[in-house]
Amino acid sequence: MNRSFEHISALEYRLKAADNIIKSFKSGERYTKMRTKHRNELRAQDKKIKSLSMELAQARCDIITVRNQWFEVFEDFEKESEKEKADLIKEIKHLKDQLLRREQQLDAAQDKIAEQRKELYEVKTDLETEKGKNLKLTAQINRDYENSSLPSSKTIKRKKIVNSREKTARKPGGQPGHKGHCRKKQVPTSEPVLLSPAQEILDDPDFKKTPKTIVKQLVGIRVMLDVTEYHADVYRNSKTGELYHAAFPHGVINEVNYDGSIKAFLFLLNNDCCASIDKSKNFLSELTDGKLEISKGMINKLTKEFSSKTETERRTIFADLLLSPVMHTDCTNAKVNGKSAYVFICASPGGKAMYFAREKKGHEGVKGTPVEDYQGILIHDHDKTFYSYGSDHQECLAHILRYLKSSIENEPERTWNHGMRSLFQEMIHYRNNLPYDAQPDMDAINSFVKRFQEMLEKAKEEYKDIPPNNYYKEGGFVHSCG
Question: Crossing angle for the helix pair 277-287 and 296-309, nearest 10 degrees?
Fold first, then answer.
């Protein structure tokens, strides 16, 4: 009810307002007000347009004034620029004349320098050739079994080498920080000898015996004749005349027999120690005060007997060498009845080794050795024959050390060879101190590899500045092999 009333009231108000507007339009009063308002707005707009027109005209005047002033300034700048340009052209011409004169003087000087350089080059070339020849001759004179692959029997210089160690400034004996190597104690072969103190010590009541005992050993060896004599009584059958005696042990056949200890001693003395048959025979005789006089024929056949009895072991070692991931091999000269012969050596890092006698070297000599069918890494002395076998190759580090020592002796101006040789010696010492089956520390390996790369870069830099001499290229050869 209230809502309807409010709605009706609102409608009535709106209707009344509409009636008033209609009345004003009918009377004309509304039109008069609107016309007056429109005229006032037109006058305001005309005034505004007039003001803007005046500002536009003033702006145009200012633009023209500024443009005229800018043209005047530009003309002044253009005049100054033309003047500076003319001055610069004049100065450039003067400088060109000076440059031409300098170039002519420089050409004359360069021609003179070129002539001098040509003369200097010819002199240096002759000097370098003479130096190279001198270096080649010096290197040949210095070559021996320490710094080359030549055997000691073919060295030009016959010098006696006490040992392979090089002289250093260190004092003899144990070095600070190095673990000492004491003599190994042996198991006593007799009752310990108790040393009695002096009688005055025993008589002095102030001296009391302590639980401590000092033990020292005196180790010696004895070589003595050990003879075992076997007796066997003979029995005779009184009816048949048949004779019988107890069987003698294996190997006891003749009246006098030699057991394995004598045979092994003579075999090792003759083969491993490279003593002649005569020296081996005389040495054993002297050890036994002349009681044992072994015939040379017996000593001579020991090698053949050893070969026949070790056939199974040799086959096993042969198979183990083929299965070894790394194998060392070499070929050395030998003499057989005054004729040249060769010995091929095959060895594994584990210590197993075999020797093969051959009449020829090269591929003919390799036949029948483990190298022929080997599929692992071969370590050798750079002999081109061995590169036809195995899956990969490494040169023996002893040869690398010889090349480096030769480079140090014959290329004193180089520095890389000193560092590389020290690095190789350090790596060899590190590996030799590891147990055979032990894996090296990767940090140590990475350090060695890093230093090796640094030495190679240093070598490249030194040989880039001063290439290897035409008469001595061993040092550059080691660098290229690295």
Answer: 100
Task: Write the secondary structure of 212-242 as one string of H (helix), E (strand) and C (coil).
Answer: CCCCCCCCCCCCCCCCCCCCCCCEECCCCCC
Does the pLDDT at position 154 exceed 70? no
pLDDT tens digits for range 429-445:
998 888 877 888 999 99
For 472, counting Cβ atoms within 10 Å of its Cβ (0-12 exposed, 13-18 middle, 19+ buried), the class is: buried
Taking CA atoms, 60 is separated from 51, 69, 74, 339, in Å, by 14, 14, 21, 123
Q: What does the alpha-carbon distance between residue 355 and residue 369 come to, in Å, rounded to a whole number?
A: 9
Rounded to 10 degrees, the C-alpha dihedral 189/190/192/196 comes to -140
Which phi and psi angles does 176 have, rounded to 5°? -60, 135
State the pairing for strand pair 377-380/353-358.
unpaired
Q: Distance between CA 412 and CA 134 in Å, rounded?
A: 14
Q: Return the structure tokens found at 375.
A: 């599929």
What is the model's pLDDT at position 479?
A: 46
Quote the radius of gyration of the chain (alpha carbons, Å): 56
Q: Are 133 and 471 in contact (CB under 8 A)?
A: yes
Dihedral (CA of 298, 299, 301, 304) sign: positive
Find out whether 402 and 412 touch, Cβ atoms under 8 Å. Answer: no
- On whether the CB atoms of residues 369 and 346 are closer than 8 A, the answer is yes
The CA distance from 305 to 266, in Å, is 13
Which residues contact residue 280 at a Cβ distance below 8 angstroms, ignoring those fewer than 6 apart? Answer: 266, 269, 270, 299
Q: How many helices, marked H, and strands, marked E, lie in the chain?
A: 12, 7
Residues 348, 321 contacting (CB under 8 angstroms): yes
The arithmetic mean of pLDDT across residues 40-59, rounded, is 87
- Number of residues that this document lists for the chain: 482
């036949």: which residue's tokens?
367
C-alpha 142/C-alpha 409 separation (Å) is: 8
Burial (0-12, 13-18, 19+ Cβ within 10 Å), 275: middle
